[in-house]
Design goal:
Number of helices: 9
Largest sheet: none
Shape: globular
Strand content: under 5%
Structural class: mainly alpha
Distance between the termini: 53 Å
Length: 181
């Protein structure tokens, strides 16, 4: 309400959208982030954090086509800027959305491409996210042995970090795989 310019209003709306998403209100997040996009005439390629949250919000309410489109655009933009970090981020997000849409071939090809980008990375969280996605893909294809192997790789890497939330998620993923098995 106190924003003096459309840019300030857009940033405030985007912040409210991100808070809504963190509070488990994806529909409110979508409304706020889309409003921010319209008010500020925003190209989300310039705001990858907003694109990440908006895409995740769309995916969480099963609007996978909107999420996939957003992640594809963000991935393409990151690749054009030669921004490997953002390309990996949006590549993994896109792969997960493709897995949710059961487009396993596209997800597998994308994960292989992203794996090449991260071959020199020593960041355990980046590697764990890739293993996580590969585990999800294998689980969706009902290859529980391979899914468990990738989930264990992710867990092993995360246990070396201070990311207790991610580590807990990896334990949960492995538990779901074992229950399915």
């Amino acid at each position: 309400e106190q924003a003096a310019t459309s840019d300030e209003q857009a940033r405030a709306l985007a912040g409210l959208g991100q808070l809504a998403y963190r509070e488990g209100k994806p529909r409110d997040a979508i409304a706020r982030l889309e409003e921010a996009r319209a008010v500020g005439h925003i190209d989300l390629a310039d705001y990858p954090g907003w694109a990440d949250t908006l895409g995740r919000a769309y995916a969480s309410v099963d609007q996978l086509d909107a999420a996939i489109s957003l992640f594809e655009t963000s991935l393409r933009s990151a690749e054009e800027r030669n921004d490997a970090v953002e390309a990996i981020r949006f590549g993994v997000l896109l792969a997960n959305a493709l897995i949710d849409k059961t487009d396993f071939d596209a997800a597998e090809q994308l994960l292989a491409r992203i794996l090449e980008l991260t071959s020199d990375s020593n960041d355990p969280v980046v590697r764990a996210r890739l293993y996580w996605s590969q585990s999800r893909l294998a689980a969706a294809q009902e290859d529980h042995h391979r899914a468990a192997r990738y989930a264990r790789h992710a867990l092993d890497l995360l246990e070396l970090t201070e990311h207790t939330y991610y580590t807990a998620q990896a334990h949960q993923l492995l538990a779901h795989i074992e229950l399915d098995r």
